[in-house]
Design goal:
This protein is of the alpha/beta class. About 60% of the residues lie in helices and about 15% in strands. The longest helix is centred in the last third of the chain and has 23 residues, at about 140-160. Bound molecules: adenosine-5'-diphosphate.
Length: about 190
Amino acid sequence: MTNLILFGPPGSGKGTQAAKMIEKYGLVHISTGDLFRYEMGNDTPLGQQAKAYMAKGELVPDSVTIGMLKNKVESHPDSKGFIFDGFPRTINQAQALDALLAEKNASINALIALQVDDEEIVQRIKKRGATSGRPDDNDETIIRNRIQVYKNETTPVFDYYDRQGKSHSINGIGGIDEIFGLITQVIDSI
Ligand code: ADP
């Protein structure tokens, strides 16, 4: 199995790059943000639990997120690997992911972090907000809170996998194909 974490702040282009990676490598893409939006759209109990946190730009509690992620992974028993997008966002989630993969005699092969500075992120998300219909994309205070939450709670996940020699940082500013080229260089080197 090949299991990759696509990492980076909100608005760093993870979704765009994940779409290209699925095509090239045939991996299953799991975006926890997309899963939560799907649940919210269907007004399920899970969606109702996530809603208030997402609206404020806070993380949904690990107890909810980890269970949802496990179910999704287990619904693809024959996958040749996964691209995790927007997960793990806390050390606790990273440890749960490692344990889940270990049960399948697998592990994370690489974490690929897209680096984009704060002001570029704010501009990109505001632009996306015009068409995404996402309330959390349309309020600068919430956007800045998401960036702060990323710095406080999520960047330690980079260091966690760095200690295992698995973290790779690439420049997330540039053309879509140019950035994809950098991602494929990392994947092809593991
Ligand atoms: P972005 O990367 O633009 O912030 P996402 O779609 O990945 O967008 O996430 C949107 C929101 O969903 C987050 O702000 C958070 O509230 C919630 N969320 C997504 N993934 C997680 C996660 N792994 N843990 C906790 N909350 C999450």
